[in-house]
Amino acid sequence: MADYIEGKHPVIEALRVGIPLTQIMVADNLKRDGMLADIERKARRAEVPIKLVPRKKLDDVSSRGSHQGIIAIAREFDYVSMRQIMEAANQQAADANGRALVVILDHITDAGNFGAIVRSAHTVGASGIVIPNKRSCQVTAATYKSSAGAIAHLPVSRVSNLANAMEALKKEGFWIAGASEHASDIIWNANLSGKIALVMGSENEGISRLVLEHCDFLVKLPQVGKVESLNVAQAATACMYEWLRQNWL
User: Fold this and answer.
1) Coil, helix or strand for 211?
2) What are the domain boundaries of the chain?
3) Entry pTM
4) Which CATH architecture is the domain 3-74 placed in?
5) What is the pLDDT of residues 57-98, one digit of tens each?
6) Rounded distance between C-alpha atoms, residue 199 and residue 144, angstroms
7) 133-157 residue pLDDT tens
8) Are 229 and 181 in contact (CB under 8 A)?
9) E strand or H helix at 57
10) Would you identify the CATH topology of the domain 82-246?
11) Is the pLDDT of residue 227 over 80?
């Protein structure tokens, strides 16, 4: 399905953060104002075509009825294969003395968490992210905003079976580390040097049983306070930075 971005402010923001757009539809009876002129300028700069259409067409595709006479169509995200993720990771390892990180998300469903994890993964230099193709956040226009644009620079592979993806990574020399509050060892004591695939579980259930069985070892973050735990995006960021610390060159 097409990913529609409705309204003047959201379309301006989409152009500002660089969401790939195929087209911007503008109602043929829309009154010109400063915001429309700004959209036209940004669209020209981004080489996004603007098409005048009857307002009824916008009404027909609008999901909220608040399009204000403008709807942008986001281009479908280009997922990559697991082979491409592994090739990118092996190249990273070759360029960085054996260091590489792949992040596996086991049915993360909150779009904000997903975007935040993508942003952190890009920041620490991860090679890519692996997600399941069902019951999980997918890459949408909203991901560009929640990841501060990082999604445009990080390969994402969408797979039907996470366990199979993990086994493929193992064959490429990766160790699979699962982040779980039930782990016996804190992450500071774990060996995260070299090629690591970090598994983060869902917000409510954590890592699923089958995925857990394919992890080589489990780690947890140390906790002093009384609050139960960090959310998955915060925990993922802390774990990824520990990987970076141990592999700092």
Assistant:
1) helix
2) 3-74, 82-246
3) 0.85
4) 2-Layer Sandwich (3.30)
5) 999 888 777 788 999 998 888 899 999 999 999 998 888 888
6) 22
7) 988 888 888 888 888 888 988 999 9
8) yes
9) helix 55-61
10) Alpha/beta knot (3.40.1280)
11) no
